[in-house]
Structures are given as structure tokens and as C-alpha cells.
Amino acid sequence: MLPICMDTRPHMLQHNMVRQYFSVTLLQSGMLILMSLITMVEALTGLHIRDLQMPYVSSCF
After folding, report:
1. How far apart are CA 13 and CA 20, in angstroms?
2. Which domain range does residue 50 map to?
3. Gap between the Cα atoms of 23 and 30, Å rounded
4. How many structural domains are present in the chain?
5. Which positions, given as ranges, span the membrane (predicted)?
6. What is the DSSP letter of 23?
7. What is the pTM of this model?
8. pLDDT digit of tens for each residue in the chain (61 aa)?
């Protein structure tokens, strides 16, 4: 006879997959917003932020 807690494992796996999907979706949305903001700043200032060799910005592109 299987323990009762084994019945909840598929539900927990599904819950973790949904949480992972939303985390990836939020990350992708954040990257799009970041790229849009950088493009806007570049257009307004004439600077090319992506050419400054900053690891946390240049690694995104």
C-alpha cells in the first residue's frame, strides 16, 4: 500500500512547473523592459550604453 503523501507528488510537480514557467515569463518580460529602457535612454542622450562594456548590461545582449 502506498503512503498517502505519494498522491500529492504529481500536484506538487505541476505546481513547480507552473511556478517555473511564470518565473521565466517574468524574467523575459523584465529583459524586454530593460532593452526598451536602454534603447530609449540611448535615443534621448545619444549615448550607446551597450558599447560601454559593462558586464551586467553587455551580457544581456
Report:
1. 10
2. 30-61
3. 10
4. 1
5. 21-41
6. H
7. 0.51
8. 445 554 556 677 788 888 888 888 999 999 999 889 988 888 888 877 766 665 555 555 5
